[in-house]
Amino acid sequence: MKKIVQIITFLGMICVIGFIVRVTVFKDNNKDMNDQLKSTELKQSEPFQCENYDENTFYVDGDWYYSRHAKMYKTVWDTYAETDTAYKSPEEFLNEIDKNVKCISEFLKKPDWEKQYRGNEDREIIITVSTTTGKPRMTGGAYGEAMLELPSYLVNLDLSPLTHEITHLIAPNNKTNNYAYSLKEGLATYMTEMMGYPGAHRLGAPVHSLAKQFLNEEHQALIDVIGLQLPSMDYYFDHMYAFYNLSNSFTKFLIEEYGLEKFMLVYMSDYLVEDYSDTYGKSYEELKQEWIEMLEYEESYEYTFEELHIRYYGITSEGSEK
Ligand SMILES: [Zn+2]
């Protein structure tokens, strides 16, 4: 009997030691990940400093909150405020929209961006913010009205859906040919970094380092058409994490190496291979090769989307607690 008790005690000790070892290894892995990500934060581009964005145009009228560029029904804010929001008040939130409109249009050198929507009308474009249980998106613009749908959990985490979606409004890219998403999403994601946000697809990690992990056989079909048109919508939905980071990285490379002006020319073109050579005096393949060679010098960060989410927010990418 004594022996049996000794054996059980011994096995119990092993379990406890095993548990401690596992917890320590897990903590060390997390620490490595944190240190690795932290040490790269300095490698990010400096956020764009725009001028005179901090005027306060907030006011309340009936059941609505307003700022210069946005409006929001009171109950929309109440929904965001049910959990911890990244913004202290509706005033701070709507002023943040105004700041984004001002700074993105300044960065993209499109001070008169509203003209493209209003035709002969003289009305300003007002963004109506609403909640959604789906993905964030911006629609409209014509006749002075744009609609910005933002899910609560992204507002709560300050994951820059504002910058991303407002870039789509200021620099629309509604091609008649399908799947021309790469530069459109590339610019919206690049702007989140320029505005100093972590970005919903990279969560503060340096985008070139994240993109590097996708330079492989599995993503060759995507690399073949990066900056052009996607193989299909199914492909886009199946490879979103790779798609957003590769498009962001390619866009960042083009803008930072060759300037915004040339990039915007291709952006407004039909996304054909020839549009690159006409604009850059180098072929699409040559430019892509330069980008790939640059990525090879970057440190690699092989984190899944889930790992990044949990590391930063302690939640899964669906917004549920972990
Ligand atoms: Zn987008």
Automatic annotation (TrEMBL):
The keyword Transmembrane helix applies. It comes from the Bacteria. The chain crosses the membrane at residues 7-26. Keywords: Membrane, Transmembrane, Transmembrane helix. This is Peptidase MA superfamily protein. It comes from Haloplasma contractile SSD-17B.
